Automatic annotation (TrEMBL):
Keyword annotations of the record: Coiled coil, Membrane, Transmembrane, Transmembrane helix
Ranges of residues in domain GGDEF: 399-530
Domain EAL: 539-793
Keyword Transmembrane: yes
Protein's UniProt name: EAL domain-containing protein
The keyword Disulfide bond appears for this protein: no
PANTHER family: BIOFILM ARCHITECTURE MAINTENANCE PROTEIN MBAA (PTHR44757:SF2), DIGUANYLATE CYCLASE DGCP (PTHR44757)
SUPFAM superfamilies: EAL domain-like, Nucleotide cyclase, PYP-like sensor domain (PAS domain)
Coiled coil: 61-88
Native species: Paraburkholderia guartelaensis
Pfam families assigned: EAL, GGDEF, PAS_8
Residues in PAS domain copies: 245-289
Length: 801
């Protein structure tokens, strides 16, 4: 590598290569190019190292060749010298008599020099040195033997013969020495062969590696070049597309109907703003580019949804933010934000939708669904939900809660005498008072007409002062539209968990306790007590459940037809309330009507029955040729409090029923409770053309005086008398007297409770032709009345007497 890097020609090539890689790496992964460069440079370094090693190997092989050749030459010389010397010795010892030598000394130093010269060429090779050392020893031996034999033969010629053992030994050593020389030569040859083979093998390997890495580098370069060409091509294409994109950008960004801007993440400055964004916030686009996001977004957090992080790496997503317009108005925008690159910086693209009106409408709808329109208090449905949530929390925290049921004592009178508008204003003021008293101590709801509910902490030291304040707040006079009104409240309380563990049970028991407060003289509070007497509990239950049934629209009205027994025609029908309760089953009006009267609930229920009956009767009477009258029972309370005349007028007007087809049934007792008021009301009703009947006639006062005073249209003979017909002659005599009175005073007459043909015959024979009873029909649904009327009219002959 050092060679290549140092080479001035390699430098531009490397730079070029780096550039190619750089362009490529800009498009692709940044790591690949440096790695490829490292790979190429490593290949070059490896090749260089191999080449160096190869030349070293070759040089070494060459020097070895030279050394071996010189050694071999030295050995040749040595061998020749040894041969000569051996011959010389034989000459000396006279084995060849034709040749004699005067003196003989073995030329040991010259031979050892010869061997040393050969040994010098063995530098670094142990084996060669060792072999030559052995050879030198052998020569020394040979020299010593030769000198001894030569000496012997010169001193005593002929003493050394071919049989002399020393001569045999000398020959043997001489051959050994010759063999050693041969061995050394072969060894040298082997060594030379080895170094030449290694040098040539290294050379082959280096060539192969050079070729391989060269090929790899070439392929890599080729690939880079091709890639580069492709990138250039796509860049050219991108340039062409840029023009099209500029137009698209204009359409997508600048002219987009949604406000869009781009915020630089680091500085939070607006770096691009479209026309609609500027328009939405009342700025010019150029003005907006001077702003930071914080100048537009007043709050630090979104109203809903994902946060807008002010740093890199935030989540993309949608959130609703409030933005201030140039004029200071607040607009809620649903912002979709996306992290992007803008001019090489990290930025956030925000696409917005103005949802101010939408949010306001949603809030309004939510408010309407959860709050009472008149008082602004939580409504019943939402209250129940909140209560159940609070109960769960209380259960976890082991807390006591109090359900406070507050019912106004005389609201109905105010409403009836001063009208609904005053009533509504009063309720709104009462609501404010309750809210003021309760404050943070609980949640207040309007539960029904004049019923309010509070859920508060049930701990006695907190609860009792609250209840006292509530009662006190109610008793203060209230000014409404110039009237000074006095309102009192009855309050019932049930406690969680002692008196119930869900909203339903707590409300029911608080209602029962409230009823107790009313029973005990009103304007007070009572806690629910499970030990209340059976009867009271049952009445409480009836009143509580009846109230709920009425509120939930679970009451129905059936109609019992009234007949002319002489002709068989249906002349009218009496509206009778029916109530089937999920817990109590079917409850008789004889049971629940007195309870409804005690609680005052009958006023609301009575008004509702009146309207229902008029509405249904108007439908039966579409054919004026066959009029069917409807009789509606009216409770004494409806007479005493409230605007009965007004209610009747409204019911007739709304239904379109002719007044002559409506009859109100009142009991004698009802009339006698407030005779003056009753007389005035009856007179007024009759003036309107509405008929009046005295119900259950004969069971009450039955004084002819009051009958004269209260001008009525019809008497209803009580079913107790009718039941005794054919059984008890005394009762029959009373019935006859009633019939006589009616006739004398010119009242119409109808008998109720006609169950048998015996009843019918007796009544017909004694001049009472109209009847109602199970003999003819039980009470039926409004829809069935028209059918019964049609069937009865179709009958050719009067019913048999
Ligand atoms: P009422 O006004 O005297 O109604 C007649 C009662 O006699 C009804 O009882 C009716 O079902 C029952 N009846 C009819 N025919 C026969 C029969 O042949 N035999 C016998 N044993 N009974 C018969 P109901 O419906 O139980 O009503 C009882 C009372 O409840 C009514 O007596 C009425 O005073 C009161 N009531 C019913 N509906 C209303 C209402 O809408 N308002 C008021 N204020 N009171 C109502
Ligand atoms: Mg009746
Ligand atoms: Mg009756």
């Amino acid at each position: 590598m050092g060679d290549s890097a140092g080479n001035p020609a390699a430098k531009p090539a490397l730079i070029g290569l780096w550039r190619v890689l750089h362009v490529w790496s800009a498009q692709k992964t940044r790591l690949v190019a440096p790695l490829a460069l490292i790979a190429i440079l490593s290949a070059i370094a490896l090749n260089t190292a191999i080449a160096l090693r190869q030349s070293h190997e070759q040089r070494y092989a060459l020097s070895q060749q030279r050394a071996v050749e010189s050694a071999k030459r030295d050995l040749d010389e040595l061998q020749n010298a040894l041969l000569d010397e051996h011959e010389q010795l034989y000459t000396v010892i006279g084995t060849r008599p034709f040749y004699r030598r005067a003196a003989y000394i073995y030329p040991l130093p010259a031979l050892i020099d010869n061997a040393n010269a050969a040994q010098r060429t063995c530098e670094g090779r142990e084996r060669c040195i060792a072999l030559l050392d052995e050879l030198k020893d052998m020569i020394r031996h040979l020299g010593a033997l030769s000198n001894r034999l030569a000496m012997l033969s010169m001193l005593k010629p002929g003493s050394v013969t071919m049989d002399t053992p020393s001569l045999g030994e000398l020959d043997a050593r001489f051959f050994q020495t010759m063999q050693k020389i041969g061995e050394i030569r072969m060894d040298e040859d082997a060594h030379l062969d080895q170094s030449v083979t290694r040098a040539s093998r290294d050379s082959q390997m280096a060539s192969a590696l050079l070729l391989g890495s060269g090929l790899a580098a070439a392929c890599l370069l080729l690939a880079f070049l091709r890639r580069n060409a492709r990138i250039t091509k796509s860049l050219r294409k991108a340039l062409q597309a840029a023009d099209v994109n500029r137009k698209k950008y204009k359409r997508l960004f600048q002219l987009n109907p949604l406000p869009i801007w781009i915020v630089d993440d680091a500085s939070m400055r607006l770096v691009a703003v479209n026309d609609m964004a500027a328009k939405a916030l009342g700025y010019r686009a150029s003005e907006m580019l001077e702003l930071r996001l914080g100048d537009l977004r007043m709050n630090k957090t979104a109203l809903h949804g994902a946060p807008f992080a002010h740093a890199r790496g935030h989540d993309d997503g949608t959130a609703i933010w409030e933005h201030r317009t140039k004029s200071g108005e607040l607009r809620s925008m649903n912002v979709f934000q996306l992290q992007t690159d803008f001019d090489g910086r990290t930025a956030t693209l925000c696409v917005m939708e103005d949802v101010t009106t939408q949010l306001a409408a949603q809030a309004e709808l939510r408010h309407r669904a959860e709050y009472d329109a008149l008082t602004g208090l939580t409504n019943r449905k939402y209250f129940d939900e909140r209560v159940n949530r609070e109960l769960q929390q209380a259960s976890r925290a082991g807390k006591t809660l109090a359900m406070i049921f507050l019912d106004l004592d005389n609201f109905k009178e105010v409403n009836d005498s001063l009208g609904h508008r005053i009533g509504d204003a009063l309720l709104a003021q009462i609501a404010r008072r309750i809210e003021r008293v309760v404050g943070e101590r609980g949640t207040v709801a309007r539960y029904g007409g004049d019923e309010f509910m509070v859920i508060a902490d049930g701990a006695a030291p907190l609860l009792e002062p609250l209840l006292d304040s509530l009662l006190a707040a109610m008793t203060e006079p209230i000014q409404v539209a110039g009237h000074e009104l006095f309102i009192e409240a009855s309050i019932g309380i049930s406690l969680y968990p002692a008196d119930g563990d869900d909203a339903d049970a707590l409300v029911r028991n608080a209602d029962a306790a409230m009823y107790l407060a009313k029973q005990n003289g009103r304007n007070q509070y009572q806690f629910y007590r499970p030990e209340l007497s059976e009867a009271a509990t049952s009445r409480l239950r009836i009143s509580t459940r009846l109230r709920q049934a009425f509120r939930n629209g679970a009451l129905t009205v059936l109609y019992q037809p009234q007949f002319d027994m002489a002709t068989g025609t249906m002349i009218g029908a009496e509206a009778l309330l029916r109530w089937t309760d999920a817990e109590l089953g079917s409850v008789s009006p004889a049971v629940f009507i007195p309870v409804a009267e005690e609680t005052g609930l009958i006023r609301g229920i009575g008004e509702w029955v009146l309207r229902e009956a008029c509405r249904e009767a108007a439908r039966w009477n579409r054919d004026p040729a066959r009029p069917i009258r409807v009789s509606v029972n009216v409770s004494p309370l409806q007479f005493e409090h409230g605007d009965l005349m007004g209610q009747v007028r409204e019911a007739l007007r709304d239904s379109g029923l002719p007044p002559a087809l409506l009859e109100l049934e009142v009991t004698e007792g009802a009339l006698m409770r407030t005779p003056d008021l009753a007389a005035r009301t009856l007179a007024g009703l009759r003036e309107m053309g509405v008929r009046v009947a005295i119900d259950d006639f004969g069971t009450g006062y039955s004084s002819l005086g009051y009958l004269k005073r209260f001008r009525v249209d019809r008497l209803k003979i009580d079913r107790e008398f009718v039941r005794e017909i054919g059984q008890d002659t005394e009762t029959e005599a009373i019935t006859l007297a009633v019939i006589a009175v009616a006739k004398a005073l010119n009242f119409e007459l109808i008998a109720e409770g006609v169950e048998t043909s015996g009843h019918r015959d007796f009544l017909l024979q004694n001049g009472c032709t109209h009847a109602q009873g199970f003999l003819y029909s039980h009470a039926v649904s409004a829809g069935a009345i028209a059918d019964i009327a049609a069937n009865a009219a179709a009958r050719p002959a009067p019913l048999p007497v």
